[in-house]
From TrEMBL:
Free-text function comment from the UniProt entry: Required for maturation of 30S ribosomal subunits.
Cross-referenced SUPFAM superfamilies: YhbC-like, C-terminal domain (SSF74942), YhbC-like, N-terminal domain (SSF75420)
Classification via InterPro entries: Ribosome_maturation_RimP (IPR003728), RimP_C (IPR028998), RimP_C_sf (IPR036847), RimP_N (IPR028989), RimP_N_sf (IPR035956)
Protein name: Ribosome maturation factor RimP
Family indicated by similarity: Belongs to the RimP family.
Domain of life: Bacteria
Ranges for domain Ribosome maturation factor RimP N-terminal: 12-84
A GO CC annotation given for this chain: cytosol
């Protein structure tokens, strides 16, 4: 993914999202074959409605047509980050300390490229996860992908998560 392109897209989209009362959570731009997909994730404290996503999608589509930032064919998708939200920055993880996350690393650490467990700390550009084998601390630049692992309530346990 081209960091400069992502920054240009963020600079274009962020003010449009904020004008609608939405926070830009992050962007994914995936290329493959003859077309690409631009995924725009937005959120608010109360969640995001389909109508809000549709409105931002229309605004972004027009702006991208005018600015012509993306030179290839692409599909635009606008949505909330969802329950298993992808993290684009370690600061986004701070409110989720104590919850389960999964992390895929670029290079193996202690013979493993993937870790899942409880997020126990976030400091500047590092995160610490506690899994069944102990704790591991990863630098953000070593992480390929990090997601929240939402635990659905177990049926018959009155809202307790399993």
């Amino acid at each position: 993914m081209n960091a400069q392109l992502i920054q240009e897209l963020e600079d274009l989209i962020r003010p449009m999202a904020e004008a609608l009362g939405l926070d830009l959570w992050g962007l994914d731009f995936a290329t493959g074959g003859n077309s690409s997909i631009l995924r725009v994730y937005v959120d608010t404290e109360d969640g995001v409605t389909i109508d809000e996503c549709a409105r931002l999608s229309r605004d972004v589509s027009v702006a991208l047509d005018v600015e012509d930032i993306i030179s290839t064919r692409y599909t635009l998708e606008v949505s909330s980050p969802g329950l298993d939200r992808k993290f684009f920055d370690p600061a986004q993880m701070v409110p989720y300390i104590g919850q389960n996350v999964s992390v895929a690393l670029i290079e193996a650490l202690d013979g493993r490229k993937g870790y899942s467990g409880k997020l126990v700390a976030v400091e500047a550009q590092t995160i610490t996860i506690e899994d069944g084998e102990g704790t591991v601390t990863c630098n953000w630049d070593e992480i390929k992908k990090a997601n929240l692992r939402y635990a659905f309530p177990v049926p018959g346990t009155k809202g307790k998560k399993g």
